[in-house]
Every structure is written in C-alpha cells, then in structure tokens.
Amino acid sequence: MRLTNLDMDALRSFVAGIDAGSFAQAADRLGRSTSAVSAQLKKLEEQAGTALVRKSGRGLTLTDGGEVLLSYARRLLNLNDEAMSAVRGAELEGWIRLGIQEDFGETVLPQVLGRFARAHPRVRIEGRIARNSELCEKIASGHLDLALAWDDGTASASERIASLPLCWLGASAEEPVWRADGNEPLPLAALEAPCLLRTIACDHLDRQGIAWRIAFISPSLGGLWAATAAGLGIALRTPMGRPPAVRVLDPMAHGLPQLPSLGLRLFRSGKGPNPIGDHLATIIRQALRETLPTDWMPRPQNAG
C-alpha cells in the first residue's frame, strides 16, 4: 500500500482556518490569497480521501473526518515547529525569564523546562512560580519576559490559550462545612488579597445573596489546599493541581452559585522581537495541549 504524506502547508492552512473561524481570515494571517488556501484545503481532502468541512448555514463546520484530522494536524504541526525551533535555535544564546502560575508548577513547568533545555542548551532560563498579581506586575515592569497567568478579563478570544472551569472545592474525607439551609455564613478559604479567584468567589456569593466569611487565608496555594483538605473552609479554584484530599462540590447539590470558566493567557513583555521568547512560547503551548483536557482548549469555530 502506498503511503500518503500530508502536506504541511495545507495542514497549517486547515488549522489556521478553523482557529480563525474563517478561511478568508486565515489567508490574511498566512499572507496568502483566499483561492490559494481553498486550493490547499481541496488538496488536503484529496490526500485524506474524505471531505473535511461541510456547509452549515452561512459558514462551514468540520465533518467527522475533519475533527479527527484536526487533532492529528495540531500534533504534527507542533512536532514540526518544535523540530524546526530546535534546529534553527541550536545556536541561540542568552537568557530568558519565565513566570508561571502556582497551579501549573508541578504539571506544565517540568515539561517546558526539559524540552526547552534540550532544544536550546546555550540559553539560560530563569523560572519563577508566583501568584497572578505578581506575575502581571513583573511583566509590566519588564522583570519577566513571559508569564503564564490567569486572564483578568482584558484578553481577546485570540489571546486566551485555554479556558479552565472554576469550581467550589471542599474536603474529600468529610461533608462540606456549610449548608445552604443553615444560618451560618459560608466559611471561605482563600489566598491573600489581591487574588482574582477570591474576588470572583465573593462576587458570586454576593450576587446569590449568600452570607460568607473569610475562615482561612493563605499566602500560597499549598496552604490553601491544606486548609481545604482539613475542612476549614470552602475554596474556589480550577481543578488544576487539585490534590486527592480535596474534591469538587456540585453547586446544585450544595446550594452554591454556578461558576464561569477562567481564561489562561500567555503574557509577554513589550520589549520588541525576542526569538528566544518565541521558541519558549511554542513549547508552552504544546505542553498545555498535551496536559489539559481537550474541552479546556479553544474550540474550533465554524469556518467560512
């Protein structure tokens, strides 16, 4: 059986069109004409032996085959880009400063540091695990080159690289310390202010008319996990890094407010072009795609 080699440029146009929500917009981003991108899509469908998109109203949506190929296309492009980054950046020298949210310190950070060190052995990377407010401040002051941090609501859809569900958390070993039909205020375990998630928790409790009190304050995420596991209070976080001793509480079952998702953003300092930063950003995005559940990543939009 003759093997078919998928065209990398066609794959890139395919993924860009789905991510942009329009193959016309993808053509602009890629610096190609719309007809050229359409020709690449047709070529890709011929190579795959199946239709990849179909008409849906005024736009296009992925077929079953298109959804399968999109997943593989992202992985192929990531591997291609990592390989080219390693080859072209083999001679890169210098240093870069990376900041990362506490929640990702034990999951994403080891992958990122290992891959980057192997690809760019002559670049010294300075890593910092910190809270969101500190990371944003250091990006603004130029003390960090890149920071993986929570979106404070100012990022556009294209700037968000993931959306993680927020959830109420309690101790796994016992019943929650608060009942909606009781007379006591909800005991909240939270990080020291300023804290984006603490503000979200208080705002949602206030909107639902639930009285609350701060029962435990921690300067670090590790302390917050410990207090929640001990049953000292209910916390609000994403499931990222949640220890086994802490469980997710069903809002409906416990009379708690429904919660939105929280965007994750890759912040960059405004110091101009930074080839080292570009390579590190590519590795971070790839590590997130491999670590986070698919439904936390940006969903393909209908393309037209």
UniProtKB/TrEMBL annotation:
Protein name in the entry: LysR family transcriptional regulator
Annotated organism of origin: Azospirillum lipoferum
Coiled-coil zones: none
Domain HTH lysR-type per the UniProt entry, residue ranges: 6-63
Pfam families (alphabetical): HTH_1, LysR_substrate
Family: Belongs to the LysR transcriptional regulatory family.
Gene Ontology molecular function: DNA binding; DNA-binding transcription factor activity
Record keywords: DNA-binding, Transcription, Transcription regulation
